[in-house]
From TrEMBL:
GO terms for molecular function: peptidase activity. It comes from Chitiniphilus shinanonensis. This is ATP-dependent Clp protease adapter protein ClpS. InterPro entries: ClpS, ClpS_core, Ribosomal_bL12_C/ClpS-like. The keyword Protease applies. Binds to the N-terminal domain of the chaperone ClpA.
Amino acid sequence: MALDQQLEKERALREVRTAPPPMYRVVLLNDDYTPMDYVIVVLQHFFAMDREQATVVTLKVHNEGRGICGVYPKDIAATKVAQVTEHARAHQHPLQCIMEVNE
């Protein structure tokens, strides 16, 4: 009897599945001061985009007000946001980078 209960508990534990962690979009926001060439460099450096892909995202930021740079787990997304923001401030650009839950 005790063995049956223990086996039942183990079976129940195996059946419990955790949901995958939520993913987060890293988004660049448009401003009137940051040069587009600088945004392209940021996308190439921090998001490993080639020049063509970085240009497409840069034009999306410019024309639509925001552009998605990538989708990452929370810690990586937060690190990318911090790196981009720090780099932009060091180069005296008001470029804003945010993260939001990917739905």
